[in-house]
Design brief:
By secondary structure, the chain is mostly helical. It has one domain (36-128): Cytochrome c-like domain (Cytochrome Bc1 Complex, Chain D, domain 2, Orthogonal Bundle), CATH 1.10.760.10. It contains five helices and no strands.
């Protein structure tokens, strides 16, 4: 009996909320904000894949500082220019310290420059996400 009462209540609410059969067009969904849906971006996909295979997530998170800065904080600090991508890729490969804290970033000497740049592009895409 309790099940029927719940079903009747749900149907009553659905009816009360409107069964408006007007043929007026529904408002179009708001366009996505620039940078919110990055899943189709090949730089995002490849960079995410490379980072997932690396040890980067040991020290970094997307939204929070861990040992190193959050990826979003890096993205806010650096514009996605060719010069910044090259600079940050070099830091990923060679390591470094002093920009975010005294804690040094471990060098990733076996990482290719192309892969490091791809990872940096991913991070910098998080600026508007």
């Amino acid at each position: 009996m309790k099940k029927y009462s719940i079903i009747i209540a749900i149907l009553a609410i659905m009816t009360a909320c409107g069964n408006n059969n007007d043929k007026a067009a529904a408002p179009a969904p708001a366009p996505a904000t620039v940078g919110t849906d990055l899943s189709a971006n090949p730089d995002y996909q490849k960079g995410l894949e490379l980072i997932a295979k690396s040890d980067c997530l040991t020290c970094h998170k997307v939204n929070e500082k861990l040992i190193g800065p959050a990826y979003k904080d890096v993205a806010k600090k650096y514009e996605a220019t060719d010069e910044n991508i090259a600079l940050l890729a070099s830091k990923v490969i060679k390591g470094g310290s002093g920009v975010w804290s005294a804690v040094p970033m471990t060098p990733h000497a076996t990482l290719s420059e192309a892969d490091a740049k791809q990872m940096v592009k991913y991070v910098l895409l998080l600026r508007n996400k």
